[in-house]
Write a structure and sequence with these properties.
CATH superfamily: Glutaredoxin
Largest sheet: 5 strands, mixed
Helix content: 25-40%
CATH class: Alpha Beta
Structural class: alpha/beta
CATH architecture: 3-Layer(aba) Sandwich
Number of strands: 5
Strand content: 15-25%
Organism: Chryseobacterium oranimense
Strand order of the largest sheet: 1-3-2-4-5
Oligomer: single chain
CATH topology: Glutaredoxin
Shape: globular
Order of helices and strands: HEHEHEHEE
Protein name: Bacillithiol system protein YtxJ
Mean pLDDT: 87
Distance between the termini: 44 Å
Length: 126
């Protein structure tokens, strides 16, 4: 391991970009499928701004809570900077105001809960 790897972290210290429980939401078709899946079980969409320190902190804290989640839920990750049009579609289709970071919980095609910033927690899913 080089000196710089020790200071800044080498490849063996790097975490995957996103945990494996996330499904990426990148297209309108992904959004439509997620809403369709909400008729079978709850889904949650995490809207994240990759340039925002608060959003990164909230995402990290939320991911730490996932292990304790005992409900069947599909978790979707939406990168707002790359897919802002999908975020706009969510607001338009579900009648919910855009915020970032934001967690939106959907069941039977309807928003049953949402939270933003430090209010985001797995408790919104239960």
């Amino acid at each position: 391991m080089s000196f710089f790897d020790k200071i800044f972290g080498g490849k063996e210290n790097q975490k995957p970009e996103r945990e494996s429980f996330w499904k990426n939401m990148e297209t309108e078709e992904d959004l439509a499928k997620a809403i369709e899946n909400s008729y079978h079980h709850k889904i949650a969409i995490f809207k994240h701004s990759t340039r925002c320190f608060i959003s990164k902190t909230v995402l990290r804290n939320f991911e730490k809570e996932i292990d304790n989640l005992d409900h069947k839920v599909e978790l979707y990750y939406l990168d707002l900077l790359q897919h802002r049009l999908i975020s706009n579609k969510i607001s338009e289709n579900l009648g919910i105001r855009h915020e970032s970071p934001q967690l939106i919980v959907i069941e039977d095609g309807k928003v049953i809960n949402s939270a933003s910033h430090e209010d985001i927690s797995t408790s919104q899913i239960t």
